[in-house]
Amino acid sequence: MALDSIRNIFKIHELRQRILFTVGLLVVYRMGGHIPTPGVDLTAIERFNPGGLLSLFDLFVGGAFQKVTIFSLGIMPYISASIIIQLLGAVIPFFQRLQKEGEEGRRKITQYTRYGTVLIAGMQAMGTAIYLSEQTNPSLLLAGVSKINFILMTILTFTSGTIFIMWLGERITERGIGNGISLIIFIGIIARLPIAVMDELQKFFPGVFGLTGAPRGNIIKELLIIAFMIVIVAAVVLVTRSQRRIPVQYAKRVVGRKVYGGTSTHIPLSVNTAGIIPIIFAQSIMFAPQTVFSFFPDSDFILMLSGWFDPRAPLYMVSYALLIIFFAYFYTAIVFNPVDLADNMKKQGGFIPGIRPGQRTAEYIDRVLTRITLPGAFFFAVIAILPNIMSRMTDVQFYFGGTGLLIVVGVALDTLQQIESHLLMRHYDGFIKKGRMKGRYS
Questions:
Q1: Which residues are within 8 A (CB) of 165 and not within 5 positions of it... i.e. 6 or more apart?
Q2: Whole-model pTM?
């Protein structure tokens, strides 16, 4: 069935062109992730290992920051600008009005997001350039390159790289398949997959791909880990697609000779309304202490605190999970307004059976949303700390799970949903014979 659907994809000219266009721009993005920044010593880059908060950036840019390439900042400034604009829409009336102005308002919000991206990218590029210029072990600057020239060139390079990536993402969304920004993050994360696979092969087959070392892997443990990965992916897909559907009925209205309403539908409330934003917020906060501690390497007290905030320490994992649950409720309250939804339903003659329209409806929706957010937030908190738990239990570095897994699964579902829609629109069978593919509700 899946092979037939794949063949059908390339029978549709428009869909084939969109997929090839998307793949082409993603290849351009990956190529840019290997072009070094001017003035950087290529031999020193091999020993450069960013830590703390900077490792979070390196996750989303596919290792481009560690290689100090022109795409070192990746798309994260755009993500930050989008989140800030979205949060401003909840507290500033000007942005609230823009959100309600339809297509014209969305264009203005997109423009403000671009301006914010340039501003944030410039600020991050300045801080990153200063950080890179001050590295002494190893020194990343080429001999004869002054710090001021390196800083100015790096700011220009990093900012331009982010703007170009933003342009690539918008072009993919417009002329390709899937959400361009999400796919850029997606491809950056899975770019690490070959390295992880080669590391595992080294345990059993030394000499493969030039790897050296004695066989040290346990095949039984490896098979159990693979089975565990499959179960975790299935669970993430299940929870990501889970919804609580609230039935809604619309009263009949007679306008002239036409009858409107009289239909039944539902409100799909996702158990993961906030998406991965809570994990990103929580991870940023939890990386901050380690970044501060790195400035005091000779202090015994700071060394003790650093041990408490080690990713495999119980205090770190508990604090991280609690922050994820907190931000899940916080961000859900920002992006989903039960009062506006209840008012719109009342204006259109809609009501929930057994619930009075208006304030009672808003309270009921808010109560249901509060209840279903808790298990979803708890599940994603467990997935986020899963690599730390497995590393502590097996005493090996565990690369599976966490933020990367949630992003990969969510983006894959969204992209497959769009491909499914193109196939069904042209009377082809999709990837699922019974039922229909459903992406994330956001």
A1: 29, 32, 71, 74, 75, 78, 184
A2: 0.77
pLDDT over 90 (residue 118)? yes
Q: Is 94 exposed, middle or buried (0-12, 13-18, 19+ CB in 10 A)?
A: exposed
Instruction: Give the amino acid at 135.
Output: Q
Q: Which residue has the tokens 């309304």?
A: 273
Which neighbouring-strand residues pair with 244? 269
**Span 340-387, pLDDT tens digits:** 888 888 887 788 888 888 889 889 999 999 999 999 899 888 888 887
Reduce the DSSP state of residue 11 to 3 states and report it.
coil
- Strands 258-260 and 253-255: what pairing? antiparallel
3 state DSSP class of 372: helix
- Distance (Å, whole) CA 44 – CA 83: 35
Tell me the β-bridge partners of 249: 264, 351
**DSSP states along 324-348:** HHHHHHHHHHHH--HHHHHHHHHHT
On whether the CB atoms of residues 387 and 398 are closer than 8 A, the answer is yes
Rounded Cα–Cα distance for residues 380 and 272 (Å)? 9
Tell me how far apart the alpha carbons of residues 407 and 275 are, in angstroms, rounded to a whole number: 9
Any residues with CB less than 8 A from the CB of 290 and at least 6 apart, and which?
A: 51, 52, 53, 306, 309
Q: Do residues 418 and 177 lie in contact, with contact meaning Cβ atoms separated by under 8 Å?
A: yes
Residue 405 near residue 232 (C-beta atoms within 8 A): yes
Ordered structural domains, the chain, with CATH:
1-191 (1.10.3370.10), 242-400 (1.10.3370.10)
